[in-house]
Amino acid sequence: MQLTFSVDDTDLYVNGAPQRWQSPPRNIAGRTMLPLRETAALLGQPLQASGTQVQLARLSLDTRRNTASLNGAAQPAGTVASVGTVTYVSARTLADALNANLTGDDTGRGFTLTALRDGGNPMTPQARFSTDKNVYAPGERVVYTEYPFDPDGADITARRWTGRQDVYFQPGTYTVTLTVTNSRGLQSQPFTRTIRVEGQPVDTPLTYALKYAQPGDAFPDPRILTYPAALISPQASPSYPLLFSDSPEVPDQSGILYQDSVTGRARLLGYHLNGLGRAARLYVIARNLESRPVEVRSERLGETAPTRIESILGQVTLLEYFASTGGTTLTLSPGQSAAVYASPTLSTGSGVNVMQDLSASGKVELTYVMLEDGLPPTPQVIQQLPYLRPDGRHVRGTFPDAVRTLRVTLGALPTRLIIGDGRVDPAVTGTDALTGQTVRLSGNYGVLYDLEVNGAAGTAVALSPRGGLYRGAMNIQDGPITQTIKLPRTGNALKPDEPVLLWRAQSDRLNIDFVPSSGSNLPISLVFYRAGRVGAEGGVIKTYRP
């Protein structure tokens, strides 16, 4: 390995190939000094560090005291120096430590350092990767190809990157390092390449995301509130009631949470935490009110239970709901009752979120019940339970429109569609069947938005959280493709100006099923963009994904 460099010059050559220092060589108190960690990486030499103690070949350093010893012999003061957070070491001392050759030119400022790479442990795996280029424009995608290997063919089980980005928007020199671990637990030495970013930008963060972001990825768009609202056309369509139970949200005794009767299809949504002080379970009991047998069929079911993490309740429930393909069918004799849903056991403070679509061939009474563990949900037990009073902060009730059918024809882009704000998208109203009071469901939790978007081909749609933390899911149909999208892919969507990509439409008609997620904040906006494409800003799209 040969480094050719000059003092105070960021340019250098590594085995004849041009690269750049992040921290260039310096003349400090008359000594030519090199950045320790960067030089070791360029030469392929391993550093061992423990706190402030660093070992490089025969050289031992204390980076707090800026002292050094070579084979145990103390080195003169000034051999080690700190410039900001970077540790510098005398180039001559480094050469001695590595048994390397250091030569200077006639100017006294140019040097060549030649050293053998560390031989390494022959049993450890070796990290390897390449990039499609060495020099990139700001905003240009970097294509990484990994090819680590193990001397004995053991599996590579872990990879650790530092400095890796799929795109760099600021000019400069970037060091990317890969370390791998094999199935025996042995770790490779770091393998490093340097990337230079310069020239005219190819893409902005927004145009780059519209080309390359994956569904569930967030990207910046500070202009999102300036986009005009899409023209929404509500459609008359078959609907059915939503029976929503969320008050009292944290019951402190066994009792009936909500109750109403339905015929035909209905959606159930229950959201409760166990405040009984002992283990408990949530049940939904169906009782036949007809004088003939009635079938109650579960068409779709999603649940999250038990959990203490409120923000995941709604997201997991929606993912399960969209994945559900139907369930059991119960046949109830006249007056007979049975549980159509029973939660797992809930410890104190843990919660349950359940969303279920039912279809009944006759009139049935549906009752949400919280029971301490050990009490069976029999008619005799339920008849003795009190009706629990609402908590005054949350909502329960029966809402007649569990499906909201909307049609949008896209025109000028970008444009946005607002959901759950209570004004552009009004809250549904219903009745608390136990008190007779009119209730308003802010956020429309449990309402299925059946959204048809026309003129969608070549567009990208993203979700912008307008009210704070949001974790949810959507089901998308794009021609022959049906896909449920987890939003976001990891963590929470939090920032209004960082929308999360949902989809890039291929068909002219895009169908989106969206249910506001329990435990998340509304409103949200669906934002439609013209997707990145060949001939757009930035030119060609790199499609290779090794």
Automatic annotation (TrEMBL):
Copper amine oxidase-like N-terminal domain span: 14-108
Sections of the chain in a coiled coil: none
InterPro entries xrefs: Cu_amine_oxidase-like_N, Ig-like_fold, PKD_dom_sf
Gene3D superfamilies per UniProt: Immunoglobulins
Protein name: Copper amine oxidase-like N-terminal domain-containing protein
Organism per entry: Deinococcus daejeonensis
Organism phylogeny: Bacteria, Thermotogati, Deinococcota, Deinococci, Deinococcales
